[in-house]
Amino acid sequence: KLACATCHDPARGYAPANDLPVQRGGPDNRRPGVRAVMSLTYTQNIPPFTEHYFEDEGDDSIDQGPAGGRTWDGRAQSAHGQARLRLLSPYEMANVSPEEVVAKVRRAAYAPQFRETFGEAVFADGALAFKGVLMALETFQQSPAEFYPYSSKYDAFLRRETSLTRDELRGMDAFNDPAKGNCARCHPSAVRNGAFPQFTDFGYAGVGAPRNLAIPANEDPHYHDLGLCGPLRTDLRDREEYCGLFRTPSLRNVALRRVFFHNGVFHRLEDVVRFYAERDTQPQKWYPRAPEGGVLKFDDLPPQYQRNVDVRAPFGRHTGDPPAMSDADIRNIVAFLNALTDGYRP
């Protein structure tokens, strides 16, 4: 009863069409998930997960650390693996086994196409048929026109087919400026080796997003989503230095989203950029008050993992300091991010 498009709407850059922090699925389509749904666009170059990522092959001078993999915690190594997770997840399509998936495909209207593609006897081998389902989903997500068309205004600007507005240009400058947004540190924006930018370095970061009490799982004060070290990913649960880190998503089509960060805590792009500017300078605006009157900063992380939160610019300032970005910078960066939406016609 749940389609991939239920959570990955083509009109929204293959992200959710609603503003719910988590989507509902399960056997009755009522069970809430625990994380916001990521976009499926511009994932074609995500490398398999590794703890030691070197952007330049043959150059081992700079180890970026953990990078790659699908989902917020990288536990799926490919679109093939990602599809398997979704088909069997108790929060999503909730099939109890690969065999149940195959039985449904056998009854589907497209079963003849499936036989034509994988052979008339494909359903005689359940494992082969399930592999065919995953391959079909993976192959569809490799369709350039659908998933990585590079058709935004910024792409047209890079091709010299159009000009950016004054606000967009100023936003691009603030986005790239290490002393202001410093966004390009994790979301590279420049053409490299002839390839247009993905707006992600595929790495992992902890930004200290506020706890989202709209997520049912967070009603339990002892529940914490720690990203790389669990609870959904289990192989790195003993790596404390990874707790609170989530994969950096691409910013392409980000203006189509209605929820942001792994927990969907923000609903406006301007609030996201402002949070980056004011997280450390005005934490009282973003985090709840403690009973004794202080600010419960990084309230979605247990104290022992808060040292993993990113403190590089625009973070790292002190309460009361001027933020790294002005109100104009924030507005201009949002204008630039809107220029990353596909479908622009010069």
Q: In summary, what is this structure?
A:
By secondary structure, the chain is mainly α. Helix content is 26%, strand content 2%.
Task: Report the average pLDDT across residues.
Answer: 96
Poorly predicted regions: none
Number of helices: 10
- Molecular shape: globular
Please describe the topology of this protein.
Elements: H1 4-7, E1 24-25, E2 31-32, H2 79-88, H3 98-107, H4 111-118, H5 126-140, H6 144-147, H7 153-158, H8 166-176, E3 204-205, E4 246-247, H9 269-278, H10 327-338
Antiparallel strand pairs: 1-2, 3-4
Structural account:
There is one protein chain. Helices cover 26% and strands 2% of the residues. It is mainly α and 346 residues long. A hairpin with a 5-residue loop joins strand 1 and strand 2. Helix 2 crosses helix 5, helix 3 crosses helix 5 and helix 8 packs across helix 10. The two termini are 40 Å apart.
